[in-house]
Amino acid sequence: MKLYALVTQFFAGNPTKNLKWKRQSRRKSCSNQFWFVLFFSVVMFFLLLCFNHLFFEKIKGFVYFPGKPAGSATYFPGKLRNNSKDSCLGRYIYVHDLPKRFNEDVIKDCLLITRPGDRYSVCKSLKNSGLGPRIKGFDGSDSWKNSWFSTNEFMLEVIFRNRMEKYECLTDDFTIASAIFVPYYAGLDLCRHLWGFNTSMRDSPGVDLIAWLASKPQWKRNLGKDHFLISGRIARDFRRKSNRKSDWGSNFRVLPGSENITMLTIESGSSENDIAVPYPTYFHPSNDFQVHQWQEFIRKQNRPYLFSFAGARRSKQKGSI
Question: How far apart are CA 213 and CA 223, in angstroms?
């Protein structure tokens, strides 16, 4: 009856009422379409959530390796679970168990590492896990005053290895590791043979190390591109290009395979795999609070002069510092 009344009203010549009806009808139609689209979107959202849960629950893990193109990942089935509670996911590090000749034996006879011009034996620098002797003499009870050590710049390798042993995300399973650490004391080992030795003696430890690494499954997984090591010497010391005895350093970083390894060094070189890191300082705070204490102490000091110094004069190169 309602439909009949509306049609009769329209054909009876009442366009105003009919227009009002049409507008109301369109509003109702748009309203219905809006609620239908909203309902359909909600349904699709929950369907996608279910699909995501079912699909990614089957994926064990993706591990990214530096040295691969950006956006690429390597998949290792059965090793990792997509568990958001795993705070180490993507941060696992595997540490090579190197023969002692590459690290512990290097510092065992610490007198061999001491350079001819050193004022005191390097053996003192090995105290406190490579930080060196503690510096005393500060007045007051602030905790930061117990964080100063006489640190040798070349002890970076020892310091880093000791810190790495306390890293929270170490793993014995290299297949889930995002990076592999090579605890080789490259700079200290070279220091033993820099003066009075031929190039073969300087190069042999590096050659032996690369041969040892290349024989391991950890290396074969990515040809060493996920490996990294630390050096307390500058990159130039490991890039000798000739076999002349008078030339400086070793050829460790130009050996086949060695260039795949990322080396963190106190001064980088031309290779993109040589990454510069800061020299070790005398201040080794154990927490953020000690850093803030030191900063507050410095802010309160009267500092009328600006002072800066870097390097030292080279005796055989005039004008060089």
Answer: 10
